[in-house]
TrEMBL record, chain B:
CDD domains: TM_PBP2 (cd06261). This is ABC transporter permease. PROSITE patterns: ABC_TM1. SUPFAM superfamilies: MetI-like. It is a multi-pass membrane protein. Its main location: membrane. Belongs to the binding-protein-dependent transport system permease family. Keywords: Cell membrane, Membrane, Transmembrane, Transmembrane helix, Transport. It is found in: Cell membrane. It comes from the Bacteria. InterPro entries: MetI-like, MetI-like_sf. The keyword Transcription regulation does not apply.
């Protein structure tokens, strides 16, 4: 089927790296990571983005909900750093709020979806048989339906409710590819001595999955969660662009860009700040994810890197 | 190979059926056509709303399984039901499908070709400035959501047109309204309209393909058979293209199927932003209109296209890799 072979290739590369957990591992990974200039640059940008998103709103006296009735569609100035919108909202305050929202939603949804992928994939891989077949078949089905379609169709369900529901749905349709990877890894780990030893001692299967299988895939899951952040941010902003995601009066980078699209030519400040921040964020995430992969991959030296920040959308 | 393909096709048909049913059930339970009518001014009487909803098979008071059975019975006979404005879904789909297919076709083909070429150049000139440039640009494009890319392209086109003082590249709609002239003039006009929207799809494709092609090609470069080919006196270029590229293309066949979902997501943004009246635009508008049957039609269309891409990739895989033909 569609992504199968692709995933298989990744499974293989993941299998060659059974991590020997030694004391100095964290430091080795850190040192390898710091040697990659792009990855470090990405990390710095990401930290700056988070700082901007959470400290930025306090630097200006405007709130994203405020309206300045003396300034409609004015350009950047000392009072309104990024100018104002048609209804007098402060673009700086809105952009900061939007960045905050997009970052939180992206981060939560990515972590959640990797968590689901880990549990489903490990369960399918460990138990095999019918559990495996049913779960993987479900994964196949969801791969045929792009998550964007499903999320757009179900968007009326979370209108007027908490945005956390949106996060849950975003994660609920984003875990399939990772689950396949985890499954492959779990199938090979299942044959290892320490798992057999645990089985002989009568350890409960669920405990084997949580204590023996998942910790052994930690690096795969960490890398995947990182790269997923870029994908979920793109998915969230894309849905929000059409009004299927974050609902007004709240804003996300997607809704800000949607509002600014039509006036982008004549009033560029409505459009560019959010656009630039969005691209920078997703790119920074991709660089960090790539750096982490290279740093954690014990078979380092393979120059291949196939990061795809745009997977989800 | 015949049996192999047949098995695949059966598998795909089952998946299409299930995906479409799932799409319908999701749409029917999350959209509320009643609201669409209730919000009209002046509000129509409840009885007449009920009558219309019943006629369109959209009444939320009818149990979901009954509505589903009614819809499924129609679909089996080729009738996709009525839109919320009481027109035929099948007819509307027929009008719009071609528009979307045109974008998808040109977008995929040009994107895959450019991406493979860039990835190939990138790999055989690894760590040279050209490699770094291609890598950076592909990261930049992949980090730009389609809606942002499309809007940026639109702005760029407007700037170019302004600089040229004439409409070099049109950027709204698929044809110029009321254009006079022969078929050739119309063909050129359609071609011109196609350029910018196709670009908005093609860039992402090219970036994605170039990343995968680069790493596949790098894996192949050090292979023994390339060295053997070189040892027989074959020059580097022909050896790389004839023996290297062919092997490195195999993973691309899989990627081709895999990215179809992404492309079909992207096409909704392209159509909305450039004003093309295709399936994607219809889908987005239909959700706003709580139009269950139209949304289900888009799910069917998407599932079919993704699985055709899957089938094509199976065939390409079998052609490129003799080991698959069992």
């Amino acid at each position: 089927m569609t992504a199968e072979e692709l995933v298989l290739a990744q499974e293989e590369s993941a299998m060659t790296a059974p991590e020997p957990v030694t004391l100095g591992r964290g430091r080795i990974v850190l040192r390898r990571f710091l040697r990659r200039k792009l990855a470090v640059a990405g990390l710095v940008i990401l930290v700056l983005m988070f700082a901007l998103a959470f400290i930025g709103p306090y630097l200006s006296s405007w709130n994203y909900k405020d309206q300045d009735y003396n300034n409609f569609l004015t350009g950047p100035s000392a009072t309104h750093w990024f100018g104002t919108t048609q209804i007098g909202s402060d673009v700086y305050a809105q952009t900061m709020r939007g960045l905050q929202k997009s970052l939180i939603i992206g981060l939560l949804a990515a972590v959640l979806s990797t968590g689901v992928a880990g549990i489903v994939g490990a369960t399918a891989g460990y138990f095999g048989g019918w559990t495996d077949r049913v779960l993987m078949w479900f994964v196949d089905l969801l791969l045929v339906l792009p998550s964007f379609l499903i999320l757009a169709i179900t968007s009326p369900l979370f209108h007027g409710r908490t945005w956390l529901l949106f996060v849950i749905l975003l994660a609920a349709f984003n875990w399939m590819v990772t689950a396949r990877m985890v499954r492959g890894l779990a199938r090979s780990l299942r044959e290892r001595e320490f798992v057999t030893a645990a089985e002989v001692m009568g350890v409960h299967p669920l405990r084997i999955i949580t204590r023996h299988l998942l910790p052994n895939m930690a690096s795969l899951l960490i890398i995947d969660a990182t790269l997923n952040v870029g994908g979920t941010i793109i998915a969230e902003t894309s849905l929000s662009y059409f009004g299927f995601g974050v609902q007004p009066p709240d804003v996300s980078l997607g809704t800000i860009i949607a509002d600014g699209t039509d006036s982008a030519l004549n009033y560029p400040w409505l459009f560019y700040p959010a656009g630039v921040l969005l691209i920078l964020t997703v790119m920074a995430v991709a660089f960090v994810g790539d750096g982490l992969r290279d740093a954690m991959d014990d078979a380092a030296g393979t120059a291949s890197s196939t990061s795809t920040p745009g997977d989800a959308a | 190979m015949g049996a192999f393909l047949l098995r695949r096709i059966v598998n795909y048909l089952v998946l299409i059926t299930l995906a479409t049913c799932l799409g319908y059930l999701l749409a029917a339970s999350s959209l509320s056509p009643r609201e669409y009518f209730a919000q009209r001014q002046p509000p129509p009487p409840v009885a007449s709303v009920n009558a219309t909803l019943n006629q369109l098979n959209l009444n939320d008071k009818t149990p979901l399984e009954d509505r589903f059975a009614h819809w499924a019975k129609g679909v089996v006979t080729g009738d996709l039901g009525k839109t919320i404005d009481d027109t035929s879904v099948s007819a509307e789909m027929g009008r719009r499908m071609g528009v979307t297919l045109r974008l998808v076709l040109f977008g995929t083909i040009s994107g895959a070709l450019v991406g493979v070429a860039l990835g190939f150049i990138s790999a055989i000139r690894q760590y040279r400035p050209s490699d770094h440039t291609i890598t950076f640009l592909s990261f930049l494009v992949l980090s730009t959501p389609v809606f942002l890319l499309a809007v940026l392209l639109k702005i760029g086109t407007v700037k170019i047109n302004q600089a040229a003082g004439t409409t070099l590249l049109p950027y709204t709609g698929e044809t110029t309204a009321g254009l006079a002239g022969g078929w050739f003039r119309h063909l050129v006009d359609r071609g011109q309209h196609l350029v910018v929207p196709t670009l908005s799809l093609m860039l992402g494709q090219a970036a994605l393909f170039s990343r995968y092609q680069r790493s596949a090609m790098l894996d192949v470069l050090g292979a023994d058979y390339i060295r053997t080919a070189r040892a027989t006196g074959m020059r580097r270029g022909p050896a790389l293209v004839k023996h290297g590229l062919r092997t490195a293309l195999i993973p691309m066949a899989t990627l081709f199927a895999y990215q179809m979902g992404m492309l079909l997501t992207g096409v909704t943004f392209t159509e909305k932003i450039f004003g093309w009246h295709g399936m994607g635009e219809w889908f987005v508008d239909s959700i706003g209109r709580q139009d269950v049957n139209a949304v289900a039609a888009m799910v069917l269309f998407t599932a079919v296209l993704i699985l055709i891409a899957g089938l094509l990739s199976d065939i390409a895989h079998a052609l490129l890799d003799p080991r698959v033909r069992d």
